[in-house]
Design a protein that fits this description.
Layout lengths: L9 H4 L4 E6 L4 E4 L1 H6 L17 H13 L3 E7 L2 E12 L2 E12 L10
Antiparallel strand pairs: 1-2, 1-5, 3-4, 4-5
Length: 116
């Protein structure tokens, strides 16, 4: 019989996208295996500040998101790979506790459906 006794966060380790979590100071708390592989050239990042890994314009965006609780969602193309980047606050006991970034590879062209 298959073991379905998973821990709270076990699913995220093999999630097919990069997941990075930071606290309200910008300190990286968690990264799944995909995120670690994506940023491996930067060395171990858990415990470091997000701002150490970004240029000033991105740091201003990080500061604004941490201060306001606003999300930031966009798509990018890098080396021919298209990605959806979704950066949003996460909460602990109803209080904003930091940011989570989810990065997913997406096809160059993908269907869009309107439903009502």
């Amino acid at each position: 019989m298959k073991n379905t006794n998973y821990g709270m966060h076990d699913w995220v380790e093999e999630f097919p996208g990069a997941v990075t979590v930071c606290d309200m100071e910008g300190i990286i708390l968690e990264m799944n295996e995909r995120a670690k592989a994506t940023f491996s050239k930067d060395g171990p990042l858990i415990g470091r500040n997000l701002r150490d890994c970004h240029p000033p314009k991105a740091n201003a965006m990080i500061d604004a998101m941490l201060a306001s609780g606003e999300k930031n969602v966009y798509t990018i193309e890098k080396n021919g790979v298209h990605k959806l980047i979704y950066q949003t606050p996460w909460f602990r006991d109803g209080v904003r506790a930091g940011l989570v970034e989810i990065s997913l590879e997406i096809p160059e062209k993908m269907p869009h459906f309107k439903r009502s």
